[in-house]
């Protein structure tokens, strides 16, 4: 199958992108709803609460009335943060398993099973009677998500038109912002009956789970996609980008006959990678041998740590620092506008830059550094009525930059390795980013807040980590630039010594 072509009807490439975006949206509605004040908890009498000596104390909650599961189950911020952490524990454990399962089963079956578990866990959460049951349900929601979020980006990269891969991935990740905003708004609507937020989501998600369970389009079997996404000549071009510098040196120092042998070995090893190394640990060993991949997942993990805090604690922090009575509404509007704009902008710019690992890593690094600067600055605006607009302006700019990062970041994770390993690349990076990122971060952010009792300084500690994440991407960009320059110099020498026929094997193409 040529890239950009595939099934027909409701499973044409464009429609598959639509279904993926819809599933992504619904997945993040759940996250946004759990993070909303309406579902997590807020005071019924804000004026009463502001007069308390300790705004978050149990005495103040009993006196002024506190809603949501945090109020009903009498949870501290640290206990509430554990809900987010256990969700990502489930997601973390299941991510590499889902990525590897794509080689054994139809991707749509994997997505369907995961979404069925997702719907069942949400429905159970909608009837939870205690904190422990809610913890179990949130963990199972996390277990279900990787079946989709690990598989979809690699499939989109294969079925998207060549000139719009960045834009298609941006559309997919745009659903994060739309879904999160929808979750904030849903939480605001059901704040007196927080369980209904989970029940509504389960009913919306269940039909899509059934659709993917029963569908088996041959065009989207993983091996079929992988083997037929390009014609033979284009596949050879793809392989050239991954020939090591050592192989180039060997080629230059060999006879013509040996050069032909080395060339054939390189092509054979590229084509046979999936057969010779099909274990999960083999995939991990291959990925971790790349210094550029290690820099990318570390930067991604740091970003996820901060992102987990923003999504889970952002509305509550904004509400308490600036005394916003409709924080969920304001954050929902801000997230959907800046999220859509930022994500589409990131994908559009990446396509205009021509794509490639260098461009994706450079853009991601600059976007994260900008996001860290503006989000930190936002929480240092003086808390009075006119300053609320300054806070949302600065935070919106920061969130715009953060949203523009997602498409290029995933593109860099896809393009840093061979096509055989791209689903595994995203899956393992997702696994690591949750282990070291948003699994612990909401919990520790809640613990910091319980200690400092100041969301301003809690966020001041956490937001600058985005700048550190950006530095990892910039280091990866610099290494890629040096590798490209070195390969270009070798190619130039080959052309001078052997002519264009030998050097042509090593032209630099975008993956």
- Amount of helix: over 70%
Query: Can you tell me the residue ranges where pLDDT is under 50 for at least 5 consecutive residues?
Result: 1-5, 228-248, 251-277, 500-510
Rounded to an integer, what's the Rg over CA atoms?
Answer: 24 Å
How many runs of DSSP E, i.e. beta strands? 0
Helix-strand pattern: HHHHHHHHHHHHHHHHHHHHHHHHHHH
The number of helical elements comes to 27
Could you explain how this protein is built, in words?
The chain is an all-alpha fold and 511 residues long. 78% of the residues lie in helices and 0% in strands. It is built from 27 helices and no strands. The longest helix has 34 residues, at 465-498. The radius of gyration is 24 Å and the shape is globular.
Outline of this structure?
The chain is mainly α and 511 residues long.
Write the layout of secondary structure elements.
Elements: H1 13-35, H2 37-40, H3 46-50, H4 58-64, H5 68-72, H6 77-101, H7 107-125, H8 131-144, H9 146-149, H10 151-159, H11 165-189, H12 195-214, H13 222-228, H14 232-240, H15 245-252, H16 256-271, H17 273-276, H18 280-288, H19 291-322, H20 327-352, H21 357-378, H22 385-415, H23 422-438, H24 441-452, H25 455-462, H26 465-498, H27 500-503
Helix pairs in contact: 1-11, 1-12, 1-19, 6-8, 6-23, 6-24, 7-8, 7-12, 10-23, 11-20, 11-22, 15-16, 15-26, 19-22, 19-23, 19-24, 19-25, 19-26, 20-22, 21-22, 21-26, 22-23, 24-25
């Amino acid at each position: 199958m040529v890239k950009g072509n595939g099934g027909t009807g409701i499973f044409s490439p464009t429609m598959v992108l639509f279904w993926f975006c819809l599933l992504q949206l619904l997945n993040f509605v759940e996250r946004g709803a759990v993070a909303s004040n309406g579902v997590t908890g807020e005071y019924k009498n804000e004026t009463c609460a502001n007069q308390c000596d300790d705004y978050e104390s149990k005495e103040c909650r009993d006196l002024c009335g506190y809603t949501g599961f945090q109020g009903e189950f009498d949870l501290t911020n640290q206990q509430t943060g554990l809900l987010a952490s256990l969700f990502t524990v489930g997601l973390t454990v299941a991510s590499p398993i889902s990525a590897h399962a794509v080689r054994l089963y139809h991707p749509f079956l994997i997505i369907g099973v995961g979404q069925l578990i997702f719907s069942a866990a949400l429905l159970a959460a909608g009837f939870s009677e205690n904190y422990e049951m809610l913890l179990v349900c949130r963990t199972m929601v996390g277990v279900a998500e990787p079946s989709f979020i690990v598989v979809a980006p690699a499939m989109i990269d294969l079925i998207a038109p060549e000139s719009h891969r960045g834009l298609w991935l941006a559309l997919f990740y745009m659903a994060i912002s739309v879904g999160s905003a929808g979750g904030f708004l849903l939480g605001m609507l059901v704040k007196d009956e927080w369980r209904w937020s989970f029940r509504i989501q389960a009913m919306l998600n269940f039909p899509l789970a059934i659709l993917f369970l029963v569908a088996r389009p041959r065009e989207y079997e993983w091996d079929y996609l992988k083997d037929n996404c390009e014609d033979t000549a284009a596949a050879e071009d793809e392989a050239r980008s991954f020939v090591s510098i050592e192989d180039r040196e060997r080629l230059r120092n060999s006879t013509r006959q040996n050069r032909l042998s080395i060339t054939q070995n390189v092509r054979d090893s590229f084509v046979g990678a999936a057969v010779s190394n099909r274990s999960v640990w083999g995939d991990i060993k291959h990925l971790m041998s790349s210094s550029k991949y290690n820099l990318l997942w570390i930067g991604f993990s740091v970003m996820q740590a901060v992102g987990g805090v923003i999504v889970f604690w952002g509305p509550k922090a904004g509400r308490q620092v600036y005394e916003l009575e409709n924080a969920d509404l304001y954050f929902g509007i801000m997230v959907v506008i800046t999220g859509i704009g930022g994500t589409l902008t990131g994908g559009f710019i990446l396509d205009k830059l021509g794509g490639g690992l260098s461009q994706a890593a450079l853009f991601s690094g600059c976007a994260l550094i900008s996001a860290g600067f503006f989000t930190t600055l936002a929480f240092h605006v003086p808390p009075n009525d006119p300053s609320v607009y300054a806070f949302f302006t600065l935070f919106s700019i920061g969130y715009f930059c953060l949203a523009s990062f997602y498409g290029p970041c995933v593109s860099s994770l896809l393009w840093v390795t061979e096509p055989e390993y791209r689903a595994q690349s995203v899956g393992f990076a997702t696994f690591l980013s949750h282990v070291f990122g948003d699994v612990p971060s909401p919990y520790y952010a809640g613990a910091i807040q319980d200690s400092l009792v100041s969301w301003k300084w809690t966020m001041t500690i956490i937001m600058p980590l985005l700048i550190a994440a950006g530095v990892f991407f910039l280091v990866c960009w610099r290494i890629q630039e040096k590798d490209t320059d070195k390969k270009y110099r070798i190619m130039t020498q080959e052309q001078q010594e052997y002519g264009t026929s030998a050097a042509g094997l090593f032209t630099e193409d975008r993956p």
